[in-house]
Design a protein that fits this description.
The protein is built from 12 helices and 15 strands. By secondary structure, it is of the alpha/beta class. The protein has 2 domains: 227 residues, Aspartate Aminotransferase, domain 2 (3-Layer(aba) Sandwich), CATH 3.40.640.10; 126 residues, Aspartate Aminotransferase, domain 1 (Alpha-Beta Complex), CATH 3.90.1150. α4 links the parallel β2 and β3. The longest helix has 19 residues. One of its GO terms (biological process) is polysaccharide biosynthetic process. It comes from Lactococcus lactis subsp. lactis (Streptococcus lactis). It holds the Pfam family DegT_DnrJ_EryC1.
Length: 369
């Protein structure tokens, strides 16, 4: 293969479409601070996500940090270690204690049967993650949250555009955070959002992303600066026009992988869950080395020798990060630990040629014992 194939490749509109979209920014010289592009994108996302409100942010991580801050949480937050650094860091950077729940071996989202045993009188919220395109057991999380009066904020970084039982994924929980990073199925270059149902909460978020400023003379929150700029919002407006097409192309890549890898013993592929419309954000496989004949790391290396760059999303568990100095015991989440050592995200993006998918599949098949 001549050109390397990376784990993903940003989707972009045509240059002309983007230039058209940013022309009025050059006319007005209004580049940030909730300008017209920002307002228009928020309005469009609110409609698409079918929620009371959406606050755009500079990235998904700040959306998560401020989403938590606006909830005035205290003590402990039950979450998952099987995620990107952002989820756990957002809890810790809010002065809260993450309490790690193990994952479900089918979806790699939080194992809801293990949540209640982790609840203490210090627990204030649950922060589950919809992993890849797999969504959490929403009904059970809602039941538990109601029973113990806990807030629920979903890390929905991977699931923009998905629906569950015909409803937008953003309708569940008190709030959901989405990432619009360059590597996501929908991107604003860098960007993110919090979607919510309570307008008071939305007002707090709007202030928090703008230094806590209420008006010219009143600053009554210790806020941050997390405003999305107009060029990012313009990219979002362009990409939103192509969202359906983007997901459809990813769907074709997903189908090509599925048929290409069907029957390879020792590899697990995720099926789209019942009642879910997927955005096909990632294509993870799970390698059982005893059956496949090679470890996940060996497979990653052989792919690299062919110029194909996969990623270990998610390894290591966030609870094992050096910055936490061994504070959390990874053995308390054995299922998450097990799969973090075996999962490999293969290249996935809308422009990935189907013949490249078949080459990748053939390398994986030939490498199997
Ligand atoms: N929660 C969860 C569950 C998340 O997965 C994430 C982000 C967040 C929260 C936080 O959201 P943000 O604050 O990021 O909005 C990438 C992304 O940077 C990150 O957004 C994402 N999750 C994570 C799963 O993946 P890296 O370190 O793997 O990215 P990087 O730079 O290695 O890029 C991967 C590939 O993407 C490259 O090999 C090529 C391609 N690429 C990359 C960039 C930057 C492009 O085609 N264009 C680009 O501009 O983290």
């Amino acid at each position: 293969m001549s050109n390397p194939i990376l784990v993903t490749r940003s989707s972009m509109p045509s240059l002309n479409e983007y230039v058209d979209e940013i022309k009025d920014i050059f006319d007005s010289h209004w580049m940030t601070n909730m300008g017209v592009k920002h307002q228009e994108l928020e309005k469009k996302l609110k409609e698409l996500l079918e929620v009371e409100g959406v606050q755009l942010m500079v990235n998904g991580h700040m959306a998560l940090e401020l989403g938590i801050q606006a909830m005035n949480l205290t003590g402990e937050v039950i979450t998952t270690p099987y995620t990107f650094a952002s989820t756990t860091h957002a809890i810790v950077r809010n002065g809260l204690e993450p309490v790690f729940c193990d994952i479900d071996p089918k979806t790699y989202t939080m194992d809801v049967s293990k949540i209640e045993e982790l609840i203490t009188d210090r627990t204030s919220a649950i922060m589950p993650v919809h992993v890849y395109g797999n969504i959490c057991n929403i009904e059970e999380i809602e039941r538990i949250a109601r029973k113990y009066s806990l807030k629920v904020i979903y890390d929905a970084a991977h699931t923009f555009g998905e629906t569950y039982k015909g409803k937008s994924i953003a309708q569940f929980g008190d709030a959901s955070m989405f990432s619009f990073h360059a590597t996501k199925a929908f991107n604003t270059i860098e960007g993110g959002a919090v979607a919510y149902h309570n307008s008071e909460y939305g007002l707090d978020l709007a202030r928090l992303k703008n230094f806590g400023i209420r008006n010219e003379e009143l600053v009554d929150y210790v806020g941050s600066n997390a405003k999305m700029n107009e060029f990012s919002a313009a990219m979002g407006l362009c990409n939103l026009r192509h969202l359906d097409e983007e997901i459809e192309k990813r769907h074709k890549v997903y189908d090509a992988y599925r048929s290409g890898l069907a029957g390879v013993e020792g590899l697990h592929i995720f099926e789209v869950q019942k009642d879910v419309t997927s955005n096909y954000a990632y294509f993870p496989i799970v390698v059982d080395e005893n059956v496949y004949g090679h470890t996940r790391n060996e497979l990653k290396n052989i792919l690299e020798e062919h110029g194909i760059f996969s990623r270990k999303y998610f390894y290591p568990l966030t609870s094992a990060f050096d910055c936490y100095h061994g504070k959390y015991d990874v053995n308390k989440t054995p299922i998450a630990l097990h799969y973090s050592k075996r999962v490999l995200a293969l290249p996935m993006y809308s422009d990935l040629a189907l013949e490249d998918v078949s080459k990748i599949c053939n390398i994986i098949i030939e490498f199997a014992n």
